[in-house]
Structures are given as C-alpha cells and as structure tokens.
Automatic annotation (TrEMBL):
<dbReference type="InterPro" id="IPR000811">
    <property type="entry name" value="Glyco_trans_35"/>
</dbReference>
<comment type="similarity">
    <text>Belongs to the glycogen phosphorylase family.</text>
</comment>
<keyword id="KW-0119">Carbohydrate metabolism</keyword>
<comment type="function">
    <text>Phosphorylase is an important allosteric enzyme in carbohydrate metabolism. Enzymes from different sources differ in their regulatory mechanisms and in their natural substrates. However, all known phosphorylases share catalytic and structural properties.</text>
</comment>
<dbReference type="GO" id="GO:0004645">
    <property type="term" value="F:1,4-alpha-oligoglucan phosphorylase activity"/>
</dbReference>
<keyword id="KW-0808">Transferase</keyword>
<dbReference type="InterPro" id="IPR035090">
    <property type="entry name" value="Pyridoxal_P_attach_site"/>
</dbReference>
<protein>
    <recommendedName>
        <fullName>Alpha-1,4 glucan phosphorylase</fullName>
        <ecNumber>2.4.1.1</ecNumber>
    </recommendedName>
</protein>
<dbReference type="InterPro" id="IPR011833">
    <property type="entry name" value="Glycg_phsphrylas"/>
</dbReference>
<keyword id="KW-0328">Glycosyltransferase</keyword>
<comment type="function">
    <text>Allosteric enzyme that catalyzes the rate-limiting step in glycogen catabolism, the phosphorolytic cleavage of glycogen to produce glucose-1-phosphate, and plays a central role in maintaining cellular and organismal glucose homeostasis.</text>
</comment>
<dbReference type="Pfam" id="PF00343">
    <property type="entry name" value="Phosphorylase"/>
</dbReference>
<keyword id="KW-0663">Pyridoxal phosphate</keyword>
Length: 801
C-alpha cells in the first residue's frame, strides 16, 4: 500500500510514526508494499509498548530496590479486553496515535478493530479482576496479578436460527505484542505424580496518568525439558511426547462454566498449577531480596478471587514446611496472616467441592495437609462448642457421606484472615446463610467491599464524547477521582448542558445502531428507547422474564395500544452445557425473527440478540443504553458490575433490590431508578410457606396470553414443543420466582414508558445517574482492600531509566 504524503503530525505522533515504520522492518520484516492491516496494528502496538516499557522497567526497579510490601491477586480468570486503546489513553497518546495512523493512510479505528481480545474469563468475576489490576496500578500500589495464560479463551458465540453455536477463540494465533515471556522464571509443579513446568508470561498493566506499570503474570504449561527425552529409548520416546501433550493441555482452555461447578480433573490441575507457580514465584522474589521465609506475610498479601485458587492455603503450608523447613505452627500463622478470600456467589451450584479420591490421586500431600488443618480446626471447635457434633460436621473442611469431598470454600475461610462479599446485601447474606456457622466462630473475619469498575476503560475509552463533555464541564479530575462527577449535579437542570448531553447520547446510540446493523443486519432507530440486558445468560438473571415482557409488549402493540418505540437488546453467552440458558437464547432469537419483520411493529418494537458479547462489544454498548435491565431474583446476584457501567454512562436502571442495585439506588436516588419486585426477605418468607407460580399466573391475563403465544409455536415456526421445557418450568416450580415478580415488573416498565415521553426529565435523570455514581469506581474498591485487608501503601515510581 502506497502511503500518501504525511499529514502534519505532533512531535510525539511523529515519534510513534517513526517507531511504526521501524517495527515494520525490524519486527514484521516487511516493506510497506506487503504490510497488512494486522502488520500495522502490530507495529503501532509495539511502538506504544516501547514507550510504556520505560514505566514498566522503572516500576520493577523501584519495587525491587525498596523491598515494598506487595499485594498479589490470584485469579483463574482475567477478562482483560483489548490493550491498545487503554494504554494510549493511560499514556495520553490517543490523538498522537490517530495522527500517526493517518500519516500512514490508516485510521486508528481500523487498528483497534484488529486487536483480538484476551478473553481469559467468563464474566463478572474475571472482568472485576481486570478492573482491579488497572486500579492498583493507577493508585500506585505494588501489586502482581497471577493467573493462567489460556491458549484459548472464552468460546466465540455465533447466533444462528437455532440459537447459540460455539467455536474456539484462538486469540494467540497471530502472536501477542503485549506479553513478554520469562523462561528464566519457570517452576515445576507435581500433579498426579507427574511434573509440569509453568513458564511466566508477563503483561504490563499501566496506571492512568502515573509512571507505574504493574505486572500481570500468567502461567503457561510446558512439559519438563527435552533433556529427559534424550535418555529415553525408542518406546519411551512416544510416551514422553504423550506426556508433553498432556502437560501442555493444562493451560490450553478456559472452562466456559459460569457459576456451575463441574468436578473436573483438569480444572483442579489448572488450579494447583497456577497457584503453585505463583507461590513459588513469591518465594523466589523473597529470596532475591534476602528476606527470610518467615517474613513471607510481611512481604506479601495474597487475595483469593473466589475459591478457584483456594488450594493456595494447603500449597503455601506445603512449601513452607516441606521445602523451607518451617514448623507447622509458624507456617500456619504465616499462611493465615497472608491470605484473604473474596466470595462472589451464594449459588450452591457454584461452590467447589472436590471428591477425595480425585484429590488423593492428584495432590496426595496437599490432601494430607488439609486433613491436618481440619483435625486441628475441629479440635479447637470441640473445646469451644462442646456437645455440638452437627455444628462440627457443618464446619468441617470435609463433606461426609458416600462421596466424601473437600469443601474449597471452607478451606478458604479457615485459611484466611479476612473474608469479604462484593456488595452490602451479599456480604450480609454470606454471614446469615452460607457462612453463618463460621460467622459464629469468627465474627470479625467477615466484611464487605462493594465492587467497582474502572472509569478509564468504561468511560474514557468506551465513551470519548462523554469524556470530552465532562472535561469541558467539570475539569479532568473525574478520571482519577470519580467522586468529582458530583460537580455535574447543578448542571442537571441547565438547558444548554442537557442539550449537549443529549447530543453525546445520540452519538453513542448511532454508533451502536451501526454495530447492530453490521452484526445482525437489522436496522434500528437510534431515537427509540434502547432497553438493554447484556450479561451471562443464567436463569437467576432472568433474561426469560425480560423476554416475556417483550412478548407482552408485542401483544399490546398488536392490540392497538400506543407505546413509545423501543429497541430491546440482549447479549451474553450461555455455558455450552446449560440447556435452559441456550433455550432462552433460542426464544429471544425466535422472537426477534418474527417481531422484526412484522410491519405492525415497524417503528415501535425491535428485538436484537447481539452475538458474542465481549469486553470489546461492551465498550460499544454501555454508552448507548437508555434503560439498564438488572432484574435478577433478589438475593442471587452477588453484586453485578454491568449495572455500574451503564449507570455511570447515563443509563437509568430498572431493577430489583439485589446486589449492588441497592447501593446504586441509594446513591442515584429512588426518583431516578425504576424499582420493582420482591425483596430477598419477602422471597424467603414466600418460600417458607411453599411457593407456587400458578396463583400468580392465574390472576394475570396478559402473562397467560404471552405464555400461550410462545407455547403455540408463534416464535418457533409452529413447533409447539421447542419451548416446552422453559414454559413448563416457569409454570410448575419457577425456581427463580419469575411469576411472583412479573406483574410488578410490568408496572415498572409502564413507568419507564411514561418517563421516556418526557425527554427533558429523562435527560435530567440520566445526568443525575452519572453524577452520583462516583462511588462505583474500582479505585474506591481497591483503596478499601489496600487499607482494610492488605495494608499495602502506594509507592510512587519516578522516571529513572
Ligand atoms: C466453579 C466455577 C465453575 C465458577 C466459574 C466462574 C464459579 C463461578 C464463576 C464466576 C462467578 C462470577 O462471575 N460471579 C460474579 O462476580 C461478580 C464480581 O464480583 C459479581 O458482580 C456478580 O454478581 C457475580 O455473579
């Protein structure tokens, strides 16, 4: 491709441009005439990386020379999303990069579109880990993220007439300019009598507007080195290769289950693999700084992101005792002073428990240690609570019965100094239900830290027009101090400001409409109300309740009712083995097919299922949301974080009193939030009396009509059986209480319709949502972890190299 005469370029842009040209030759080994768009993307990324390497190297030097106390975040998932634009924004180089691209006859947008996203997570838990890494760097906290470098991330979702289809996500196929392999930092892990080697791959995590760049260290599995192979005879050679293949499957693929535990040998192997490598790495760092192993807990705080890394309790004990010669009692006080645990779910099906047999096969020494921890724990309990064997049985690390199991959540609680939930209600329910017995034993161990999201990715990167308006109206501080958004409040009644606000929102909706057209072929009207539910598909999140509501709307419109135009947008992946979730997608797709071609619905109702929801797609969706659907059964969504992203970008929420919705409503004000549904307490009371959906349904003609229409095959080409499992479930056990909340949901949706008709009032409410959401910054969450749990202080990094 011939490059035109370079446009005028700012000095830093000029430097980027030169670096891009250099990398085309020295990294891609190409001339301009052979370069593909992807080559240019790689060159831009490498040029940006060259710049941030200074921060990265200086940060490592600073942390090493100052022997800083360090927080480590252990997580089986990091749902990072693309790096390029985020790094540009953190470095303040977005404009310069755009100019450099232009000088090469390219656009920054096409570069950004080339970047495959590292989808190394399922949903909320993995994305939270990514927001937290970025906030730790921005707050200049010494921190390391530890996880697994999955060769294949979360599956790609395609939507066909039969709903979801999965394919693999080969995100590394064309290389990854953002990582550096560190072969010198690799560790052996013994699993099932065989050794696997974990090799470190490091990715820099830049802080915003600071010189700090922390490290995310992901482990890739390798077979032990080829030296052994040489000594094998011909027969053993093939066996050795097989072992190599087996070992390397360890970091091959992310398990695509969200909140559904499946006791799988490979998953337990993945857990010990990354946990052991990470802990060995910490011992290596300790040693390199001449710190004795008995000071482990002074050097490191280890945060367990749910129970996936809970084996760390046993593994840290093993390393201290077996490898470093520490006695049991000292090892135990070091371990419990080091580790803390975050719980992300109350759902019983997400609680990990490993069969003893499997555990014994794979990790015999760690099991021995768990038995010893348990014996000592039960001994102290027997003294404190004499004559209460049932209490001891409930608290035990081992679940008794025909198939004895190790309860990983119990191991995590016993081995931690602090256990936290992720929103007020969730943390309270943890203490009252799941961990009630533990809360009796150690009342002070439990606390709450409400989740947050990073305003850099979810506002500055995702919504540049809004960021520009904010900079103009209240200054640029909001990006580091999100509370500053408060300054918007007086502007919520300023006609001139509201007009600009409207303009920003229209832009975002037009952008999303273009994406919808590209991804689904459907034309939507950007002036209609964008009603959005994007998240993993799960019955407790009740996408089927939203779908029923859409069918009701369709019926009302067909009956001639006048309702304001809406575009109802769904997105999210279903676990490949979760039949009911896949059926919900199939229903939405079937509805979309009928509704979107019905002339009577033209200009009134559109239904969209956006395929392959991801961080990248989220960045396009969140800024364009008018109505944020947060409709989980009360008491089931631990926190939610999409709710925060939408509200932050000016969406109004329709939601239940669940997870962080409660705190969002408290902050934005009940006038600016559409509340409906039973509370967790009310549902508990209903459950005690025996719940049945039928009485609710019988009094609700519209709901019945909607269910009958679905059952008649209207959305399934006449097939009356297709949705039977879904409808039968709703009408018999209705485990997620859809019928109990449906009527009130409709009432709230009607309020949404009337509020939407008053455009001025809607805009004002939208501004107030953004203005009052500053609390939900992950900077605030991380500050709380650092102060209350990790006791880690900021260490500013100065440019030194
Ligand atoms: C056991 C295994 C299959 C498993 C895998 C993934 C279990 C759970 C998960 C994921 C859980 C998860 O994403 N939980 C979500 O965490 C978010 C961050 O705290 C919360 O906002 C959200 O409510 C919660 O569902």
């Amino acid at each position: 491709m011939a490059s035109p005469t370079p446009a005028p370029c700012p000095p830093k842009g000029q430097a980027l441009l030169e670096a891009m040209r250099r990398h085309l030759f020295s990294s891609q080994a190409k001339s301009a005439s052979l370069a593909t768009i992807h080559d240019h993307y790689v060159c831009l990324s490498l040029a940006v990386r060259d710049i941030l390497l200074t921060s990265w190297v200086d940060t490592a030097d600073t942390y090493t020379s100052q022997h800083v106390r360090t927080a480590t975040y252990m997580s089986a998932e990091f749902l990072l999303g693309p790096h390029l634009e985020n790094n540009l924004v953190s470095l303040g180089l977005r404009e310069e990069a755009a100019a450099a691209c232009e000088a090469l006859g390219l656009t920054l947008e096409e570069m950004l579109a080339e970047e495959p996203e590292p989808g190394l997570g399922n949903g909320g838990l993995g994305r939270l880990a990514a927001c937290f890494q970025e906030s730790m760097a921005t707050l200049e906290l010494p921190a390391i993220g530890y996880g697994i470098r999955y060769e294949f991330g979360i599956f790609r979702q395609q939507i066909g007439p039969n709903g979801q289809m999965e394919s693999t996500d080969p995100w590394l196929a064309r290389g990854n300019p953002w990582e550096v392999i560190r072969p010198e930092w690799s560790y052996p892990v013994l699993i099932g009598g065989q050794t696997v080697i974990g090799v470190a791959y490091d990715t820099p995590i830049l802080g915003y507007g600071v010189h700090t760049a922390n490290t995310l260290r992901l482990w890739s599995a390798q077979a032990p080195d080829a030296f052994d192979f040489a000594s094998f005879n011909a027969g053993d050679y093939t066996r050795a290769v097989l072992h190599k293949v087996q070992s390397e499957t360890l970091s091959k693929v992310l398990y695509p289950n969200d909140e559904l535990e499946q006791g799988k040998r490979l998953r337990l192997s993945q857990q010990i693999f990354f946990v052991s490598c990470s802990l060995q790495d910490m011992f290596r760092i300790l040693g390199s700084q001449g710190i004795p192993v008995t000071e482990f807990h002074r050097k490191f705080a280890v945060q367990l992101n749910d129970t996936h890394p809970a084996i760390a309790v046993a593994e840290l004990m093993r390393l201290l005792i077996d490898v470093h010669g520490v006695d049991w009692d000292t090892a135990w006080s070091i371990t419990t002073a080091t580790i803390s645990y975050t719980n992300h779910t109350l759902l019983p099906e997400a609680l990990e428990a490993w069969g003893l047999e499997l555990f014994q096969q794979l990790l015999p020494r760690q099991l021995q240690i768990i038995f010893e921890i348990n014996a000592r724990f039960l001994r102290t309990l027997r003294i404190r609570f004499p004559g209460q064997p049932e209490l001891l049985e409930r608290l035990s690390l081992i679940e008794e019965g025909p198939h004895r199991k190790v309860r990983m959540a119990h191991l995590a609680v016993v081995g931690s100094h602090t256990v936290n939930g992720v929103a007020e209600l969730h943390s309270r329910l943890l203490k009252e239900n799941l961990f009630a017995d533990f809360a009796r034993v150690w009342p002070d161990r439990f606390t709450n830290i409400t989740n947050g999201v990073t305003p850099r990715r979810w506002l500055a990167v995702a919504n540049p027009p809004l960021a520009a308006l904010l900079n103009d109206a209240i200054g640029t501080d909001w990006c580091r101090h999100l509370d500053q958004l408060r300054k918007l409040e007086p502007l919520a009644t300023d006609a001139g400001f509201l007009e600009r606000w409207q303009g920003v929102r229209e832009q975002a909706k037009e952008r999303l409409a273009a994406t919808i057209r590209q991804d689904t072929g459907v034309l939507v009207d950007p002036s209609s109300l964008f009603d959005v539910q994007v998240k993993r598909i799960h019955e407790y999140k009740r996408q089927h309740m939203a779908a029923l509501q859409v069918v009701e709307r369709y019926l009302r419109l067909r009956a001639g009712e006048d309702l304001p135009p809406r575009t109802v947008i769904f997105g999210g992946k279903a676990a490949p083995g979760y039949a009911m979730a896949k059926l919900i997608i199939r229903l939405i797709v079937g509805m979309a097919e009928i509704i979107n071609i019905d002339p009577a619905m033209d200009g009134r109702l559109r239904v969209i299922f956006l395929p392959n929801f991801s961080v990248k797609l989220g960045q396009k969706i969140y800024p364009a949301v008018d109505l944020s659907e947060q409709i989980s059964t009360a008491g089931m969504e631990a926190s939610g974080t999409g709710n925060m992203k939408m509200s932050l970008n000016g969406a109004l929420t329709i939601g239940t009193l669940d997870g962080a919705n409660i705190e969002i409503r408290e902050r934005v004000g009940d006038d600016n939030f559409f509340l409906f549904g039973h509370t967790a307490e009310q549902l508990a009371a209903i459950n005690r009396n025996g719940y049945h959906p039928m009485p609710w349904l019988e009094n609700d003609a519209l709901a019945k009509e909607a269910i009958d229409l679905i059952g008649s095959g209207h959305f399934s080409e006449g097939d009356r059986d297709l949705f039977h499992p879904l409808l039968a479930n709703l009408c018999s056990s209705d485990p997620f209480r859809v019928m109990a909340d449906l009527g009130d949901y409709r009432r709230a949706q009607n309020e949404v319709d009337s509020a939407w008709c008053d455009a001025g009032r809607w805009s004002m409410m939208s501004v107030l949502n953004t203005a009052r959401c500053g609390f939900f910054s992950s900077d605030r969450s991380i500050q709380e972890y650092a102060d209350r749990i990790w006791k880690v202080a900021p260490v500013p990094v100065n440019a030194c190299s």
